[in-house]
């Protein structure tokens, strides 16, 4: 056995030590093959999505390895949930710089293991590489949805309610606090509020619990990753409609309200900052009450913030004076 182990390459040893224990799906073949085989449940379509994280772009180099791993999975789980899909498993590609050591990998894989178990989301396969650049983590998520029932962005119709889950803007404030901790004092935040906002930046909460609820009640859906303003605009474009939003109805956490009370100009950040990973949906009026009740039974608040109206791919955000807001940067973009 010792001789056999000594013949393994460094990459094979790394995979065997850190990642093979996570590959519990039988179709992963113990990560001993070149690919995985996944059979969707009977009568279901596969749903595929991918998102990547790059050190210095999507997270700070000194963010905890365990939370970085969880964030990499959760941003993809959020996409699946918004499409009404249940997770089946994920592929993972890592490009590791030389300053990543065994201790970091141990904590990283611990985070993967915890969330893989919590969300029933096993590792199916992937790849590991060295890079002279920053750490790069790419996840391909595989999910399943009953045949023909994937919820697209293009189903919104005039008269539908525009609904969001949870609260908006917390992660953007958490990122600002991560960059400048002194803002907490300027915003008059308690230690509890500061910790809440920081946690929302570090650990998104994918709304997997309402995937089936969305399938039953939503006409269109997507997750909010690039900011409410920008992502609603994308949904409107896909559906060839417009939307009118009343900003006083946008759900904010107590922490965000405290910051906003001391610095009203933060409203634009809350609406455009991104990384919320809440669900944005268009719900027919006849389905709205049932949708909200079903979501609440699963511990998720859903708030109507406006309605779908006639138009061509526009999202109008109206302030308390019924004046349309203008945004310097409506959405987060890498380009």
Characterize the structure shown.
Helix content is 37%, strand content 21%. With 335 residues, the chain is α+β, with helices and mostly antiparallel strands. It has 2 domains: 9-146, PurM-like, N-terminal domain (60s Ribosomal Protein L30, Chain: A, 2-Layer Sandwich); 153-318, PurM-like C-terminal domain (Phosphoribosyl-aminoimidazole Synthetase, Chain A, domain 2). The chain is globular and about 70 Å long.
Describe this structure in a few short sentences.
This protein is an alpha+beta fold and 335 residues long. Mean pLDDT is 95; it is low at 1-5.
Radius of gyration, in Å, reads 21 Å
**What is the class of the largest domain in the CATH system?**
Alpha Beta
Largest sheet: 6 strands, mixed
Q: How does CATH name the architecture of the largest domain?
A: Alpha-Beta Complex
Give the topology:
Elements: H1 2-6, H2 10-19, E1 44-54, H3 65-82, E2 86-96, H4 102-118, E3 123-130, E4 136-146, E5 161-165, H5 170-179, H6 183-186, H7 191-202, H8 211-217, E6 220-223, H9 228-239, E7 242-246, H10 254-262, H11 267-272, E8 279-283, H12 285-297, E9 302-309, E10 315-318
Parallel strand pairs: 2-3, 7-10
Antiparallel strand pairs: 1-4, 2-4, 5-8, 5-9, 6-8, 7-9
Helix pairs in contact: 3-4, 5-7, 7-10, 8-12
Features:
single chain; 335 residues; alpha+beta; 60s Ribosomal Protein L30, Chain: A; Phosphoribosyl-aminoimidazole Synthetase, Chain A, domain 2; 2 domains; six-stranded mixed beta sheet; four-stranded mixed beta sheet; disordered N terminus
């Amino acid at each position: 056995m010792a001789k056999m182990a000594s013949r393994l390459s460094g990459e094979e040893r790394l995979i065997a030590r850190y990642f093979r224990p996570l590959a519990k799906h039988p179709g992963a073949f113990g990560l001993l093959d070149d690919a995985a085989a996944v059979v969707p449940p009977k009568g279901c379509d596969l749903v595929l999505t991918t998102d990547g994280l790059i050190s210095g772009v999507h997270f700070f180099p000194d963010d905890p390895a365990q939370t970085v791993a969880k964030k990499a999975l959760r941003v993809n789980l959020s996409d699946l949930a918004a499409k009404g899909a249940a997770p089946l498993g994920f592929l993972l590609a890592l490009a590791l710089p030389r300053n990543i050591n065994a201790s970091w990998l141990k904590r990283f894989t611990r985070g993967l293991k915890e969330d893989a178990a919590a969300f029933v989301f096993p590792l199916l396969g992937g790849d590991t590489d060295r890079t002279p650049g920053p750490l790069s983590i790419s996840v391909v998520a595989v999910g399943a949805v009953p045949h023909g029932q994937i919820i697209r962005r293009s189903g919104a119709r005039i008269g539908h309610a525009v609904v969001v889950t949870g609260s908006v803007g917390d992660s953007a404030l958490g990122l600002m606090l991560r960059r400048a901790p002194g803002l907490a004092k300027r915003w008059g935040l308690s230690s509890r509020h500061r910790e809440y906002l920081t946690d929302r930046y570090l650990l998104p909460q994918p709304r997997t619990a309402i995937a089936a609820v969305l399938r039953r009640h939503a006409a269109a859906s997507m997750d909010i990753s690039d900011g409410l303003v920008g992502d609603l605009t994308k949904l409107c474009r896909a559906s060839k409609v417009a939307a009118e939003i009343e900003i006083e109805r946008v759900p904010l956490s107590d922490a965000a309200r405290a910051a906003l009370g001391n610095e009203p100009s933060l409203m634009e950040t809350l609406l455009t900052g991104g990384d919320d990973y809440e669900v944005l949906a268009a719900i027919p009026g006849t389905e709205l009450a049932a949708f909200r009740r079903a979501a609440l039974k699963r511990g998720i608040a859903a708030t109507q913030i406006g309605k779908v109206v006639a138009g061509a791919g526009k999202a109008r955000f109206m302030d308390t004076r019924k004046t349309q807001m203008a945004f310097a940067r409506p959405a987060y973009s890498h380009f």
